[in-house]
Amino acid sequence: QVQLVESGGGFVQAGGSLRLSCAASGRTFSNYAMGWFRQAPGKEREFVSGISGSGGSTYYADSVKGRFTISRDNAKNTVYLQVNSLKPEDTAVYFCAAKAGRYISTEQNLYNYWGQGTQVTVSS
Fold first, then answer.
1. With CB atoms 3.0 to 4.6 Å apart as the test, which of 6, 32, 42, 52 could cross-link to 115 if both were Cys?
2. What pLDDT is recorded for position 24?
3. Pairing of β 46-51 and β 34-39
4. Do the beta carbons of residue 59 and residue 49 sit within 8 Å?
5. Residue 33: exposure state from Cβ atoms within 10 A (0-12, 13-18, ≥19)
């Protein structure tokens, strides 16, 4: 079982940056690939970024590639999402999720554990 708690969201102006964190419980954290997803009001939840269990592989949605960076510190049971050059369209609740398995997937139904989300609001 994995419990996830996101933090680091906030209100920023366009062009600003934040670092989102997701703290996970469990002694087998490295066995789980981790993903970040986001959901804007009235929109479906979408994949943002994923990282393999070891941290050796990463993947990004086209909409954030070059602006966002995912990383993890398995010794701290924490995954991060550095979000730079923020745009108003990045405004959403950002969720972290843990997948059963070490390898990245963009499919939401393969992620078994979800945090409660952290709000990112970008003003223009």
1. 6
2. 96
3. antiparallel
4. yes
5. buried
